Structures are given as structure tokens and as C-alpha cells.
Amino acid sequence: MKVFITGGSGYVGKATVKALIRQGIGVTALARSDQAARFVESLGATPVMGGLTDTETLRAAASRADGVIHLGQHYGDDTATVDAAASQALLDGLEERGTYVHTGGVWVYGNTNGVADENAPLNPPLLTSWRLKNEEQVLARASEGSRPVVVMPGLVYGHGEGLIKQFLVDPGSDENAVLSIGDGRNHWALVHVDDVAELYVLALNAPAGSVYAGVSDQNIPLSRIVQAVAQGVGRAGRITSLSLAEAEARLGPIAEAFALDQQFTGARARKELGWTPTRLDALADLARAH
């Protein structure tokens, strides 16, 4: 089997490339630069030079694959347009030969009011509202014979990387190095990067039109996450609490997403795909120095 992946040099992408190769799957990976090409090659993948705006390159690469995993994201005012064009090009190239796995995110559900699953109502923050139309268009291709699947990761952590430390750790502060939003009682639905990578591999065998929440049932209050992060970066107890307005001024639109109160179950992926996440102590991982 051969799989083409976008975003293979990124945080979740590199873990997914490794997971694919562990299963004996041949991997080709989109690479925007020589540096990215060398990196994915070091992981064992064959680079395909190009970016997400190169739709002909995407279509051709997908046409030579038995499955596609789309993890890459273009950042800019045209994020939604680029993602829509890229996903359709990948689906066109793959045709009906294999599964196309598209990346979403649980933030599109907004506040969940308790533990939710994939059937929860959608109420995205502004940051991810563009995903709704794109995912609808992707899943609609199932009625045309394609095999689209959407994986919606929670907040991904592990190996000292990810959005959590990227945004909560304040590099400009020595005394108050970790940021918190509000009173910290809101929950985040977490998943380890290696576990969600394994979900992407399993999703290649999922039924067309399936949607999976990529969460490992670790629904943890922000206050405890922040304390663990502070310990992990050597600033135990040194936390700056911001109001949502202050956080938005400091962090931008992502602050609204971080302020969501979300609890999710990954039961569907466990039942239908046999997904068995094993890295289940997020607080210990975040508190560990990397």
C-alpha cells in the first residue's frame, strides 16, 4: 500500500509518517522546501515537491497513491479557499481507489455542555468556522463514489511540542511564564500525538463518510493543564491569569478557542476502528521537562 500525505513534516504529520511506516506502508509526502524534503526523507518517506496551492501536483501525487492523508494547512486570509481546493484536488486524484482522510478539529463543536461525541451540535469559534463548509464538501463526495473520512483531533500534546506549550508559555516573561484564561474551570479534550497518528492510519480503513473525534477521553480542566505546563517549563506556580479580552489581545483569535469548555469521548473510533490510545497521562507528560 502507498499513502500520500500532506503536512508530513509537521507536528502530527511526522508522527503519522512514522506510524504508517511501522505498518509497512510506503509513504510519499508533500514538501514545500528542500529542508522539508530532507526531513520527510529522514523519516523514511519519499518527498514530493510542492505546496498546498499546487493543485496539479496534489492531484498527480494522489493519483499514484492507494490512500491520502491531508494534514497540511495553509495559513493566511485564504486558508479556507486553499484548503477547499487542495482537498478536492486530492479527492479527484485518488478517485475511488482508496480512502481520503481529511483533518478537522473538535473546536468546531464549541462548548459541549458535558461529554459529547461526533453527533454534538456545531458551534465553532471564529478561528475554525471556515472548516464547516469544507468538511461538508469533503463528506459529500461519498455520494459520488469517493471514500472521504474526517478525523477531528482534540488538543494534541506530547514530546514537548504542540499548541498547548506553543501558546501558553510566555517567552517574554521570566516570573509569570505560563498563561491561563478565565478561572480555569473549562475543560480541554486532549490526545497524545502518537495516539492520534495511529488513528489516522486506522482511518484509512474506515467506511466512506465517517467522522471520528480524535480524543483519548482525557477531559481535563484548564487550571490543571496550566499547572502541569508551568512545572514542565520550570516555572511551577508562576501563572498569569487573563480575562478572555486580555487573552484575545495577547494571543489573537485562538484565545476564544482555548476558552471553550469541551469534553469528548473517542468511543466511536474505539468501537469502529479498534483504536486503542495508550498514552493516557497528559498531566504527567506536560509536567515533564523536555
Give an overview in words:
The chain is α/β, with parallel strands linked by helices. The protein has a domain at 2-154 and 192-215: Rossmann fold. 38% of the residues lie in helices and 20% in strands. It has helices spanning 11-22, 34-43, 55-63, 79-94, 131-140, 163-168, 193-203, 222-232, 244-251, 254-258, 267-273, 282-287, and strands spanning 2-6, 26-31, 46-49, 67-70, 100-103, 115-116, 148-153, 155-157, 178-181, 187-192, 210-214, 218-221, 239-242, 263-264. It has a 7-stranded parallel beta sheet with strand order 3-2-1-4-5-7-11, with helices on both faces. It is globular, with a radius of gyration of 19 Å. 47% of the residues are buried.
